[in-house]
Design brief:
The chain is an all-alpha fold. The protein has three domains: 140 residues, Alpha Horseshoe (Serine Threonine Protein Phosphatase 5, Tetratricopeptide repeat); 98 residues, Ankyrin repeat-containing domain (Serine Threonine Protein Phosphatase 5, Tetratricopeptide repeat, Alpha Horseshoe), CATH 1.25.40.20; 87 residues, Zinc/RING finger domain, C3HC4 (zinc finger) (Herpes Virus-1, 2-Layer Sandwich). Strand 1 and strand 2 form a beta hairpin. Helix 13 runs parallel beside helix 15 and helix 16 runs antiparallel to helix 17. The longest helix is centred in the middle third of the chain and has 22 residues. The radius of gyration is 28 Å and the shape is globular. The chain starts with 6 loop residues before the first helix and ends in a 6-residue tail after the last helix.
């Protein structure tokens, strides 16, 4: 069907055999004798030499053919381009070369009405997916179609790339697509069961990782397909007990990535990784309660196993988050400079599930100075010399204030509590009550 490259198809001409094997010398010899061979195709699937090179990952052959002014969007029998075949087979070097050569990412095949984006996702090649999305942001696609529209492009049966990723159990692709603006609650046409959302399809496939990703990006557990089924019912029907437990409407609602907030969309990659990891850790803690007593294990290791170094010295206690007194400060609020750990920052932003009907959400405020948060960055890690200076300075202050701190067994703890009392002029008791509202209650 245009997807296999067996020797039966390639033996029809010596050129195709040489292309698939990557024999550049033989290719050049054949083309010197008859340059028109490059325009011939296999009899049945109409595969050109460029198709075969792309699907086989023969980057040198591919480059050589493109250098001979062969159009990168030549079609086979099913109107598939070399870029589609390279994405289908996960040949990232060929994908990148074809994109550089100007291959059109908006072409649809006649087999399923799919683009190269659909093929990369369906077969789980996240590196090819990222390359295609990067090209979409830097080419005319962003101007003519719009990047978000391209990310949500539908195939012949009304399936977006996110639908395919969820059904095929591709959590990495699901995450990349959601991060690129894929619509988490869009319904299918004729793909799968009519009216299915990505969450329905993930429930059908039993992918716990895909369910986690979709829920963390605001997928609605109560959205129904055309037959009136919610994802929970789909998971039960296909006997995916772990997925059903998380999708049960009566179970605890997960924390949701606060994508509507402007400063969240402007996060630098390092800060984003910290907050995304904190989100998954928080939701996994909820999963432990939901899945308690079930004779099943999580499908992948928990990120919570990767904890902050416990060997925190007394000298570095000043860097602990003054909200939870547990994690090291990793996120800094600009421009006030106050610091928190990623978990507390996330809880501050995710205290309410984003409402898709709301045009914009009010930005949360810094819990220390009550100023609106405009930007978050990774907190600067202090060097050893800076820490020593701060420790010496702290000791000097303690000596000067010994009359006030004498008799206290934990002056650092009292100082931290005192900092809460300064937030907006409120008392520490009031702040302690408010801080409980920052985290979603099950």
């Amino acid at each position: 069907m245009g997807q296999g490259l067996s020797c039966i198809a390639t033996q029809e001409h010596g050129l195709f055999t040489a292309v698939q094997a990557g024999d550049l010398d033989k290719i050049q010899l054949l083309l010197e004798r008859d340059p028109s061979l490059l325009h011939q195709t296999t009899v049945f699937d109409r595969l050109s030499a460029l198709h075969i090179a792309a699907a086989s990952g023969q980057i040198e052959v591919l480059s050589s053919i493109l250098d001979r002014s062969i159009h990168p969007d030549i079609l086979n029998r099913h109107k598939q381009t070399p870029l589609m075949l390279a994405a289908m087979h996960g040949k990232i070097s060929c994908v990148e070369k074809l994109l550089q050569a100007g291959a059109n990412i908006l072409m649809f095949d006649s087999l399923h009405g799919r683009t190269c984006l659909h093929y990369a996702v369906y077969h789980g090649h996240s590196d090819c997916l990222q390359a295609i999305l990067a090209a979409a942001q830097s080419t005319s696609v962003a101007d003519s179609w719009g990047f978000t529209r391209f990310v949500n492009v539908r195939d012949g049966k009304g399936a977006t790339p996110l639908h395919l990723a969820a059904r095929q159990r591709r959590p990495d692709c699901v995450h990349i697509l959601l991060d690129s603006g894929a619509l988490v609650c869009s319904s299918t046409g004729g793909y799968g069961f009519p009216g299915s959302t990505p969450l329905h399809l993930a429930a059908r496939g039993g992918s716990l990782d895909c369910v986690r990703e979709l829920l963390a990006w605001g997928a609605d557990r109560l959205q129904r397909d055309s037959s009136g089924r919610i994802p929970y019912m789909v998971a039960l029907k296909h006997k995916h007990r772990s997925c059903a437990a998380l999708l049960n409407p009566s179970s605890a609602e997960p924390l949701v990535w606060p994508s509507p907030l402007k400063f969240i969309s402007e996060l630098n990659p390092e800060a984003k990784v910290l907050l995304e990891r904190a989100l998954m850790e928080a939701n996994r803690e909820r999963e432990k309660d939901i899945l308690k007593g079930m004779a099943c294990s999580l499908s992948s290791p928990s990120h919570s196993d990767i904890s902050v170094d416990d060997n925190v010295s007394e000298a570095s206690d000043t860097e602990l988050c003054c909200i939870c007194f547990d994690q090291v400060c990793t996120i800094e609020v600009r421009d006030c400079g106050h610091q928190m750990c990623a978990h507390c920052t996330l809880a501050l932003c995710c205290h309410n599930k984003p409402n898709p009907t709301t045009a914009c959400l009010p930005a949360p405020v810094c819990p220390f100075c009550r100023s609106s948060i405009a930007k978050l960055v990774v907190a600067k890690v202090k060097t050893e010399s800076e820490s020593d200076k701060e420790i010496n300075s702290s000791k000097m202050r303690r000596v000067r204030r010994s009359n006030f701190s004498e008799g206290s067994s934990s002056f650092k703890g009292l100082s931290a509590v005192g900092s809460f009392g300064k937030m907006g002029g409120r008392g520490s008791g009031r702040i302690a009550a408010d801080s409980n509202d920052w985290v979603d209650k099950p």
